[in-house]
Amino acid sequence: EVQLVESGGGLVQPGGSLRLSCAASGFTFSNYAMSWVRQAPGKGLEWVSASTLGGGGGTTYYADSVKGRFTISRDNSKNTLYLQMNSLRADDTAVYYCAKDSTDFYGYFDYWGQGTLVTVSS
Amino acid sequence: DIVMTQSPDSLAVSLGERATINCKSSQSVLYSSNNKNFLAWYQQKPGQPPKLLIYWASTRESGVPDRFSGSGSGTDFTLTISSLQAEDVAVYYCQQYYTTPYTFGQGTKLEIK
Fold first, then answer.
1. Which of A60, A87, B6, B102 has the most CB atoms around it within 10 Å of its CB?
2. Which residue, among A108, A111, A113, has the nearest Cα to A9 in the 3D structure?
3. Listed residue (A69, A102, A70) closest to B95, CA to CA
């Protein structure tokens, strides 16, 4: 059974940093692209970042809203996906979901974690 | 960026009746080399993560009831629930995975009339 468990969310002041983790199990983590998707309170879904296996060695992608502030990474030996979030702003407040892509590159999201809440506030 | 626009924003349908949600992309998500539309539909119930319903515009995910169907190609897509059940109350999102940034529609809230 595929499981994705996010952790690391919490309350942080504007300008602060936070690192999210997503522990994966039930599938061969190193064979699939992974993404972070967020949802602000009462709002829709926004894709944040992807870690793909395409391009020969793996490629990362970011939404313009987080480029230069967020960094996605993965540790295939630990089956874990990360999101380092720096220079956090109030509009980064959201539930952050880890999602498994259906392929190693471009794919739909076939499994989602339960999410971890990040609140940016003073 | 590819903009995904859903209509309507909300919808109230009687139990047992058909529900139809539309999704339009600002550019085609049909990949000519494999003739596949890079379009997915998700269902999200309150307090839960999204759940994949449909991918490649019309392929139903395993375990999804056959009352859910997807259609369309290029830039215009439809999610149809043939006979609405109480458990289908949710917000539905379309998403393109043709290119990054992956983008979602704004969501359609489906309720019982």
1. B102
2. A113
3. A102
